[in-house]
Amino acid sequence: MRSDLTNEEGIPLETVTPRNHLLLQADGSPFIMLAGEVHNSSSSSAEYMEPIWKKAAELGMNSLLLPVTWEMVEPEEGTFDFRIVDELIDQARRYGMKIGFLWFGAWKNAQCYYAPAWVKTDTVRFRRAEVEKGKKKIHLQEFHGMPYTTLSYLCEATNEADANAFRELMLHIRSVDEQERTVIVVQVENEPGLQGAAREHSAAADAAFESAVPQPFVEYMRGHTSTMAADVRQAVESGAGSGNWMEAFGEAAEEIFSAYHVASYIEKVAAAGKEVYSLPLMVNCWLDKGDKPGIYPSGGPVSRMMEVWKHCAPSIDVIAPDIYVQNFCEVCDDYVKMDNPLFIPETATHGYAGPRLVYVIGHYHAIGYSPFGFEDMGKPFTAIESYLFGVDVGDPMLGTPQSMEEYAWYNRTLGSMMPLLTSKYGTTDLQATIVERPERDTMVFGEYGFQTWMKLPILSRKDGVCLVLKKAKDEFYILANGCAITPFSANPQKPHVDTLSLEEGLFQQGEWRMARRLNGDDVARMRFESPTLLKIKLFGYQ
Ligand code: N0T
């Protein structure tokens, strides 16, 4: 009997706070995107996409994240061409899948790669950012001298043109898809922000930075310090409470200034689209890793600027992290503050991809998870991928691509449980543990609990994961891999537990189908070395 994990009312101490989890809908029901994001150039051609849809289907995915680019849909100002959008929607329907479109507008990885030629060439009307005084093109030292330029977040004309194109895109999607709803979410821009400096340095930017911060914004920031990153909070609290950006926000002023303007820009784009077709909208970010703003895109929707973004961009429903770093769970923790639903639009395709998928659904009740460049899953990593994924040859999980067979099993199994899973979202009836968090190896569900073991002398796996869903007070579904499980009682009146039945099986058309009845050694050890779905019934007694 373990009572240490519940409070006096018997409420588990580690609870899931209800959030806006059921945001995404497909075919009239809540939907978790078991997705993949294609490489940047794949979705510019339906023909090129054909085998990629096939691979997605083989991988058990239910949706894809696909770039739609400004340069392709508005090649000349005011002339729109949505053929590629229609073709992608047709393909998705043929494969029975949903789409999240990624609007590659003014920003793509903090640059303006995807702005149409008529925008790129009119540098007077569509001003570039001055990263350094008088310099619109610099070479980023941190990225091997990579040339860098981007559009100014202070340029009205760019903002209007971008918003107009996005409105046309959303209008078009509505006209072809409002009935079927193949497109269920849209990401506005991609990893926005400014690189090379914490803020722009044109004369106009300097003047804006010197002028008074809108007072309601200062007050909002001072009223929202409880969720802020420590250094941001300190800067905001030690600020003067009014005045120019430096006076109001001290050390954090330049990043907050950029976030304010980037978020306000994107709000205009998002609102223009939402007004004509109200789909859930998200933004994604290039993470900060303790480095200075400008090394990561300054003003981008990183968790340390989430307070700014939630205030300035109310049309954005989700702030989503692109996670290639190894402290994956810590990053997730940062992105569920302020009731932000967890959506991972990009992550690495190495060996942790599968267990992390299970964990984000079980623990964070994530609404979407999508390995990036999934069309290469199963192939050896390229040099660029090794760099991006932080591949460490000493860690076989990082050095090895995710097994496709296993990933497909996870997707299919989670997909088959969709209505059950979503019915438990926002409640403590759905929990998970993962090998990456050995200190959180226990789950309590009212009268019963489960202790999971992922590192034992006889079992030491790096992909251990366990998701538990409470079906009835003494009955549970368990999705497990690389772990051993011990059920226990959390009821002081009935401290002992027997396992009445343990079945291995799967869901078919929403019905549980037993494949094997497990007992004897299999109940004694309850150890699962390959992905397994179980149904267990427990009995507590004195
Ligand atoms: C991602 C992807 C794609 C220290 C990179 C991650 C995708 C974009 N950017 O392959 O380009 O479209 O959103 C940026 C992370 C850079 C970290 C630098 C390594």
Automatic annotation (TrEMBL):
InterPro entries: DUF5597, GH, Gly_Hdrlase_35_cat. It comes from the Bacteria. Pfam families: DUF5597, Glyco_hydro_35. Residues 414-526 form the DUF5597 domain. Residues 25-127 form the Glycoside hydrolase 35 catalytic domain. Signal peptide: none annotated. This is DUF5597 domain-containing protein. It comes from Cohnella thailandensis.
